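User: I'm new to structure prediction. If I give you an amino acid sequence, what do you actually give back? Let's try with this one:
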Amino acid sequence: MASDCVSPTESARPDAAAERAPLFRRPRSVAAVPVVFLGLGLYRAWIEIVFVGTFVVFPAATVSARDLFDWAMVVTALGCTLLARRIGPFFDKRWPFVLGSAMLVASTTLMFASCWVASLAAWAGYAAAVAGGFGIALVILTWSELYGCLNPLRVALYYSASIVAGAVVLYVYRGFMLPWLFVMTALLPPLSFWAASRGFAHLPPQERPATAWTRFSVPWKAVLFMAAYAFGYGLMENGMYGGVFGPHSAPGAVLVAVLVFVGVSFQGGRFDFSLIYRFALPLIVAALFLVPVFGGTQNYAAGFCMAAAYTAQSILIMLICANICYRYGVSAIWLFGVERGVRQIFMWLGRVTAAGVGALESFGIGGEVAVSALAVVAVALATAVLLSERDLSSRWGANFLSGGTDSAAMIRKQELADRCDEIARTYKLSAREEEVLLLLAQRKTVGIIERELLIANGTAKAHVRHIYQKLDIHTRQELFDLLGLDGRETGPQD
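Assistant: Good question. You get back a string of structure tokens that encode the predicted 3D arrangement of the chain. For your 494 residues, that looks like this:
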């Protein structure tokens, strides 16, 4: 049957667990990123091929099927949020990996089947959307749980590298003929889940997701920040898909990921995360300016700027949410479920709004100008939220609540972080020195601090020396006395 689809042809010796895990070594090259952590890019590639900005024209792909995919993802993500205490964490359970893989393979099969059996297109798209939305939510939450176990520097390094890896997969897949494209696309979800499971295996047991439940109010500033950007992106999304590249393989997205990866690789603990949004804001403003000037959201300059800006903000929101999980022991399934659900809802609202703006043209108001104006408002709101926080280590409007299974310990952990923040402000410590201060307060050795912050041993020692000089202390015990801590609160002695 003829096909209806179109396819293009740390000086202290590290502990034994860390010694067995090369992923914690200071990154000096691309090889410093463990291959398994690139698996996050595989699910990004799957999304673009099967549902978002695909270069394959599936008969089953319709606007309503795409909306159903988004809403299936929203319902699953928010459902996991509500059930997080019962079903989490995912890393020590098999069902999320098996069920998620099966659903995504089924979704892939249904979409490609519509290419060969035209009569399936009428219902295959909807079934594929439900299965795909459910499965993709599970894989996103699984990877989010893994990234919530990592220091922000490693999150930035691995996440940016995964974005590039996902784009490379997409570029290669463009050369497959349709039957091979189907087989190779169906392999992406199981490989992504397998890579996530191997990522958890790399982590020392004490760094894997906690099973104790911490009640934490929603970090509304972080969620609102991403929602505003998602709305602005949704306003221009449909036009961007009219180009050669999809959202995950766009040159703008790849460029930002490369810049973040190179910055973290070469600067390590000195990398300034504020550069991400400082870089993104001018780009999105440029994109919104170029739309009305050149007429049409499909112009390449606007698409490049918007893809770059949205990718930068996606990296930033991953850093913010993962750091909350890493710093305070919050469930990643709960937190990322909220963030991802809200993000997709606002992105959908952006698409719907953009589609309805065309009606303004009958009143003599340019649709493109109206879309740009709405996006500017969304970006201004997101920027105001972002600038209301001092740095990534803040709680972004959230607080611990009573009632968790280990709430007392988590509250002590929060109070320790707050006390370190207060000391840092009083004695004018730098942002990096504040991070080292918190790790010292947690009784972590210089070797562990080196590994956590991706810095050289001499650099870690220099930070400790500078902190002691600024605080006018000479021993770790004097530091504990200054922070009002005792051995019971800080764990084992160095």
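You can read the tokens as a compact description of the fold. Here is one thing that stands out. The radius of gyration is 23 Å.
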